[in-house]
Design a protein that fits this description.
single chain; about 25% helix; five-stranded antiparallel β-sheet
Length: about 350
């Protein structure tokens, strides 16, 4: 597919896809979605192609058409929840040895997790749309449609949004990858789908058409990777930590040692977890607390949006109750534990939460 996948009917303002384009029905008064200059249709190899008239140079028309078509499909009322395949989260960390900057320890993670079907709602003042998975009562994922002339520029609202909604992931649309997927699909075989429906299907099904602006698990994974890498260095050589991107004193061709620590390794038995790492473990590996009974905790720590709670053989991640007197200890844990998650309280977790609260390790 060359040229533009979409044009605009200058008479009606309707977005026209090249797959379903019929000159007898639509006419030839077409313009580019971005520059609004005349577009002509060429019939080649059994199908139509849209291209700018004359030598006009416009590099935004294809991306603008994709953005408008995708936005229109997302705006449509849903008949049933949609399945979306998310991109992998690729993380790499490296630590230069303080004793020998030519020695670099490096580890990487490619993390992917299937998600349930989702309901789509429109966003305001941040992500253009939100996805709420069918097993959740709150939004789980925000979608950003970049400006066609700034396809890889992070919007200025991301930091504020992630500070307020730490458990909501953010993805963006990769127009270049989506256009490439659409081109392959159109050239493969004739289709009864409209161009916009085909585009939307590819967006949902192809993980490469999306990228992460923010992933709720990224910080915890990075911390675990760095702690695991530090354990590979001899204790006597560990001095003040060096910035990961500090390459000033490194030799041009450093020796690289790839860590063999498994992706899901959290800590060793002698390590302590940070508060954020504890929350990550419970959020990822925990069980729902629907069977919780009313009891007071042995140890508690308030965190953003809720509490970490230790009781006997369980460690809970408790979200703040939506109603009731949260200042009363029994009320918050009775309501919260039923909507929270828990994991078995291992020795590492117990020592970590007690250290964070300020208890002794005994």
């Amino acid at each position: 597919m060359g040229g533009l996948p979409f044009s605009i009917n200058a008479d009606t303002g309707e977005l026209i896809g090249l797959v379903e384009y019929d000159p007898e029905e639509v006419g030839s008064n077409l313009v580019c979605p971005a520059c609004h200059q005349p577009v002509i249709s060429l019939y080649e190899s059994g199908r139509y192609h849209f291209t700018h008239k004359g030598q006009h140079d416009c590099r935004l028309g294809a991306r603008m058409g994709v953005m408008l078509a995708l936005q229109a499909e997302l705006d449509k009322p849903l008949i049933e929840p949609l399945n979306i395949i998310l991109p992998a989260l690729n993380i790499q960390e490296e630590i230069p040895s303080p004793a020998n900057p030519a020695l670099v320890l490096r580890d990487s993670v490619v993390w992917r997790r299937p998600v349930p079907p989702a309901i789509i709602t429109k966003g305001k003042g941040g992500p253009h749309f939100y996805f709420r998975f069918t097993d959740s009562e709150t939004n789980n994922l925000g979608l950003y449609l970049p400006l066609p002339d700034k396809p890889r520029e992070s919007p200025n609202w991301v930091t504020g949004h992630t500070n307020r909604h730490m458990n909501v992931g953010l993805i963006w649309v990769d127009y270049t990858a989506l256009l490439a997927a659409l081109s392959r699909e159109i050239n493969a075989a004739p289709s009864r789908e409209t161009t916009a429906i085909m585009l939307f299907r590819l967006f949902l099904a192809d993980p490469d058409t999306k990228g992460w602006l923010y992933h709720p698990r990224e910080r915890g994974i990075r911390e675990r990777l760095r702690e695991a890498l530090k354990e590979q260095l001899p204790a006597s050589k560990l001095g003040p930590s060096l910035p990961v991107n500090n390459q000033m004193d490194m030799q041009p061709s450093p020796v690289v040692i790839e860590s063999e620590i498994p992706t899901e390794t959290v800590v060793t038995s002698g390590s302590l977890l940070s508060v954020s790492q504890i929350a990550e473990v419970i959020a990822h590996d925990g069980q729902d607390g629907a069977d919780a009974v009313l009891y007071s905790p042995d140890c508690q720590l308030e965190i953003d949006g809720g509490w970490l709670v230790l009781k006997h053989d369980r460690l809970w991640l408790v979200e703040k109750a939506s109603s009731g007197d949260w200042s009363k200890r029994t009320t918050r844990f009775a309501g919260g534990m039923r909507s929270g998650r828990y994991v078995p309280a291992s020795d590492v977790l117990v020592r970590s939460i007690k250290a964070a609260v300020g208890y002794g390790n005994g």
